[in-house]
Amino acid sequence: MAQRLRQSGDQIWSTGGYDTHARFVSILGAGVLEWLDVKPGERVLDLGCGDGALTEELVKQGANVVGIDSSSEFVASARRRGLDVHLMDGHGLEFNHEFDAVFSNAALHWMTDPGAVISGIARSLKPGGRFVAEFGGHGNVAAIVTALRAVAANRGGDTELAFPWFFPTCDEYTDLLAQSGFTVRQTALIPRPTALPTDMAGWLRTFREPFFAQFGHEAEAALHDVVDLLRPSLCDSSGNWTADYVRLRVDAVSEAASA
Ligand code: BEZ
Predict the structure, then answer these.
(1) Which atom of ligand 1 is nearest to the CA of 25?
(2) CATH for 5-142+165-198+244-254, among 3.40.50.150, 3.10.180.10, 3.90.1150.10, 3.30.750.24?
(3) 243 forms bridges with which residues in the sheet?
């Protein structure tokens, strides 16, 4: 039986579904690699590495990379790329001052105890090591969240299941990092409306299956309610869907060793 780790909102990952409905996540995440600016030989932790698409890119750039993810399916997929990847929850990082940098793309918004995650990142880094990440920022997928909440309310469901994420502002995240001794060098909140390769139903099935499962045999009807609510704002006249993504990008350095 697959090891069960903490998974926010009981999200279960399917690598096939991710590849079909969300491959753009790693493609668009490539921009944050420029902020990392990795040097050959650096030891890097890829936190929430998913199927390893960007981990592989870091290896190509000459880094010595360890990936972790809480999904056994993603870990298996990343290992098939020949990567050094471990099954581990980002809330319980098991490293001690061994990395030059911690990198993360499109993963931290699934980890809803950011204080635990950030203190683990601080512990994983060598003194003065850098933390460079991109994930969902304040206002991310706001229309989608509002539609999920409306459908939960209309159908007597659990509105909490509509929002299993952490989408902070730059100031909120900077404060959290400062509490663990980080100095933030730059942050950016980047609106990124993103054309979906399939449609909104595919996105919702990939990322919010636990929300719809609460409606039992009416799950499909609830999904169609959400899609109908979103159509006027996120679907164009040709039937092409856009997701209202907003990214928070951050570059911080951990405390240097005291003299
Ligand atoms: C994101 O990458 O921002 C995201 C993906 C799935 C659900 C929510 C947010």
Answers:
(1) 2
(2) 3.40.50.150
(3) 194
